[in-house]
Amino acid sequence: MPRLTISWPSQGVSGKRAANRENTRSSHARTKANPKKLGTSLVMSARRRPDRAAADPCLCSFRSPIASIVPAPFALVQDRFQCEQNPSLNWEGYKPGYKDHATVHPRKPLHAPSRGSILTPEIRFAPFDGPHRMGKDATESPDKGGTMDNLGITRRSFVKATAIAGVSAAAFGLAGCAPTTAGTLAATGGFKPGTYTAASQGKFGPVNIEATFSESALESIVIGEHEETKFISDRALTEIPAAIVEHQSLDIDTITGATLSSMAVLNAAAECVKQAGASDLSGTYEPAAPSSAVENLSGDVVIVGAGASGMVAAVNAARLGAQKVIVLEKSCTIGGNALVSGGYLEYVNAPESIRETMTESYRRELADQLAQAREAMPEESYRRLMADYEAWEASGSDAVFDSRELHALQYVLQGEGTWEEMIALANNVDALDQWLVSSGFQFKELCGIVGYSWPRWASPQEGTCGQGYFMFYQGYIAENDYPIEIYLNTPAHELIMEDGTVVGVEAIGADGTTYQVRGEKGVVLATGGFSGNPDMLREYNTLWPFTESSAIPTTNAFGHTGDGITMGLAAGGTVAAMDVQMPFPFADCQNSTDETTVGDDIDCVIVNKNGERFMNEVLDRFTMTEHIMEQPDEVMFMISDADTCRVNGEVNRYGHNLQRLIDQGQLYRADTIEELGEMIGCGGTALAATIERYNEIARTGEDPDFGRTTFSEESPIENPPFYASPRTWAMHITVGGLVADINDGYKVLDESGAPIPGLRAIGETILTSCGIGVQGEGFAVAQALFGENAAD
Predict the structure, then answer these.
(1) How far apart are CA 644 and CA 602, in angstroms?
(2) What would the pLDDT profile of 211-222 be if each residue is shown by its tens digit?
(3) What does the entry list under GO cellular component (predicted)?
């Protein structure tokens, strides 16, 4: 029997939460070579207080500039809700946005960071009904918790906010969502037997259900068509219906990490109850009291976080001989942000069959980079780069040139980090790629992505976004019978230290059970960054015009609130570059995701609400965000045509239905540019003039207006249908984090630069690492712990 064990609490109850209030101080140093000393008196305990129930101060992740795109009631309640959840904000006249900010440069501080922020990660309690096992044929997989989950917004608080704002809950598909009393619903006197259907809005669109009633009970709920993110929504779409039927109650709390999907099922079920002739279900449910149990666990290593880096670390540790690997995960699923990203991983040594053609635009870009190479990298590395380049030239290949040295060089030239850091990243990712491919993993064709136009990025052949990696890992674990135990909805909060050595970690399950988990080889922190923690973003910010009243949207899945960084600081670690906070400039204006995009990220034209082109479309993400913040309402439109839209039939590249996106105001489509201009509000003449000018530039490959150098034969916008995808910015990646020694097994360093015994960290928990490529660090840290040269 496969030894992959995944455990999670059986939710579907009214959860209790406890606030975790932390106050950290740290350096804003850019490099790990010179971290400023941390005053230990300013680092508070990371221990959670289950007895200290408190409402989380939270900022809704939406902001008023989207009002012209989102239906007015939705935009209104978003801002009003934000103010209700944080009394320090003033609703009257409140209109976030950045009309008055100074010009922002990604490398220059705008203002001093705020101090004294409170960090409030959420914890919920629910009965634990034992482990759920996942094997070769398992279908358990993890939707996207999204920004509401990151901020601790529950079904009840969201409905309450709509009432405060004077907006009908029905406007959101929330009719019937709020319970009449806590845990008990009014008796109804029976139902009209039959099967009824209803739909309610989830994260990406309507979730359809079919509910069957007898005269006395709701007998079954079957989930129908939906577009929720697989691997995140799956538990919500199975456990919520089961809980409703079992308890004959709609007073079921949402699954942590899949709030919107959970709400959709509850709302649709409420509508079916009404169709069956009742006002409510009659069941009574009493949630279990939080458990006071303490459970002791031990393994060869404890990994905190089951995202991209953490899962690879677990798999590779088991592959290298670990007898027991324990993984603790805060959310309802494995996968983390990889599930809601494009799933793109650098693939330097990809076969020519999946590489792009080396165009003149790419040749010019490469020539410019090679001219800067000698000054940016060590001489030995420069010689290797030039030898690889000359061999490629001599081969006569028409596929795009790439190498590990070029990979690192491009990051250095873009300001991503030092040569040492970037070549380590390139080497780790290359090793990961080789293992994946040798193990049967398959990639799609390479392309460029937002902010990184060199076409070395590959996504999984199977699944959408980054789901394919975790589908592969699950199968690989089952096939090899690896001894990996994963505890879901079990956030770690405190490292266990003995005589200055980290020996384990304490976590609390959703039912309140305390887990004391020890690792013979210590603990690996892989909890991600803090893009989902507005307070922490403001605390360390020096780049962006955030204020205490600014709403900060995020692309991140639930749980990325800096927990690992907080624990590492409490154990004596230090941080650097915490102010280097990277937004994603192509986020959806309604839900801050990337998955609704229609258009080629690096082969499109971008216009503002006036129909004007305002920047080079292939700049870095920091600079693009700066330009977007200066546009009317901080909104832009990605314009594409039949050649550059990247649609497949009637769905976009992430599988979302085009007509549904159009119906929800997330996409515009027309047969002429003039008609498209009228749709987006700038007028047909204005947009047509912009596209005509852009097409002239694209055909020549010379851009005197904004300096873009990368174009393809498909770049001109000429062939209908034409699309406009409304986009804005959202916080995406935090580059800074704990300082770790990348050349010594990712050991976390203290203020003096010495390693903290027993503690390692990887991924976005540490300085410089980001994106799907952090899987390479998971691969490397397992090698350091369990490889043939591993220390005892």
Answers:
(1) 10
(2) 999 999 999 999
(3) membrane
